[in-house]
């Protein structure tokens, strides 16, 4: 089947490579324009564009798909010339104009990293971790005008582990989702797939802002843990110590009977009080921070202008005082 692929970031590369290794023919790639990356802030192609160019596939990088723009007109002419039977979409990042939805016989088939209609929107993986879901997955569906509302063509499930960061979970979903996308294209090519309407209550996972990644230490320990893992690596969970903005990597919830609990209890008993939310307690080998319930042990800390370092090393060098907020 002739396929145009629309995608941009690294997780989408896995799906593109899976399609390239299948019996289908990827005849073109849509991706976002080159962006400035790295320390030098030089213009560089998206990860999807880089792979497509290496494979000699024609790549289009429009600023917009709107019909009333030069870019939009070019996209429409390009699709007419390529005549794809389906357009596979994985984290493309551009709105698709309604008139383009009929540009291929099978439509635009989106690989979305949730079990629709749960967590429609831009950040389903982060939302699943932050809300404490046990199970998530990926869905393929035919795009329509609503936000992730189209009929579902296939799903796979994935267990969310207790220590999963968004990067960990997205990496696994990128591979299982890529297999699902190929299987979906196989089914469409054979005319043996019947799309099913989404059922159940819809929930939403809008795009995440940096402000939303700020840690609220007044939450229970498990909520603080989930929040930090959900926003690792991007945009990165953070907190303030005075006028310093610190990036915080995943923490450890202190479980009764653990070595960390013993070290913490010995120190806290000397103070005869529990740790208040955001209060820092430094021991010989660990740094603990109070929450609404049990304190958590910090993992890695990144101070402004510095590299990430183990929390105990950070504490020895900075001698932190005050309350994280």
Describe the structure.
The chain has 325 residues and is α+β, with helices and mostly antiparallel strands. The longest helix has 24 residues, at 166-189. The protein is built from eight helices and 17 strands. The chain is elongated.
Give the proportion of residues in helices: 25-40%
User: What is the strand content?
Assistant: 15-25%
Query: Largest beta sheet: what is the strand line-up?
Result: 5-2-1-6-7-8-9
Q: In terms of structural class, how would the helical and strand content be classed? A: alpha+beta
Catalytic activity: L-methionyl-tRNA(fMet) + (6R)-10-formyltetrahydrofolate = N-formyl-L-methionyl-tRNA(fMet) + (6S)-5,6,7,8-tetrahydrofolate + H(+)
Family: Belongs to the Fmt family.
Protein name: Methionyl-tRNA formyltransferase
Enzyme class: transferase
